[in-house]
């Protein structure tokens, strides 16, 4: 391989990395707008938040459903990757679990409205739900196991039960300004703690 081939390979990798970063920026912006305004938020709001034109969003995601599915997958991946990172960087496993649950709540808020958008494609929604469980239940299990092993929390809660409980606490939160789902989730996580002694 000569120098020009090597340079071309580096340039192609750099271009792919830039494209991936640009798409992640778009998806992060869309997620933030969805959290603030719901999944029916105007595309122009997402474009403004991402610092791009509306055409750029449509070029990457031709339909709203495409954009929502991409945001959903992006957030599942971010949530999955955050678990081990939080375990490594937090003061305690219980603190890592609490921080991860905060991310999970953000994800659930973004997810609201997804079912309505995908009603015409039940198989697509089922595939996404299976993907969600496959990626996030093991991460939550890892966080719970670490907190149990450190003696911080009770050992009789399974990841799927905790995730379902958090999900149920988040239902309807966006329609009632007097309902603070995040506060109730904090109480739930605090309630897992074992009394000192």
Automatic annotation (TrEMBL):
Domain of life of the native organism: Bacteria
Record keyword DNA-binding present: yes
DNA-binding region: 42-61
Family annotation (Pfam families): TetR_C_43, TetR_N
Residue ranges of domain HTH tetR-type in the record: 20-79
Keyword annotations: DNA-binding, Transcription, Transcription regulation
Family annotation (PANTHER family): HTH-TYPE TRANSCRIPTIONAL REGULATOR BETI, HTH-TYPE TRANSCRIPTIONAL REGULATOR RUTR
Protein name, per record: TetR/AcrR family transcriptional regulator
Organism annotation: Streptomyces milbemycinicus
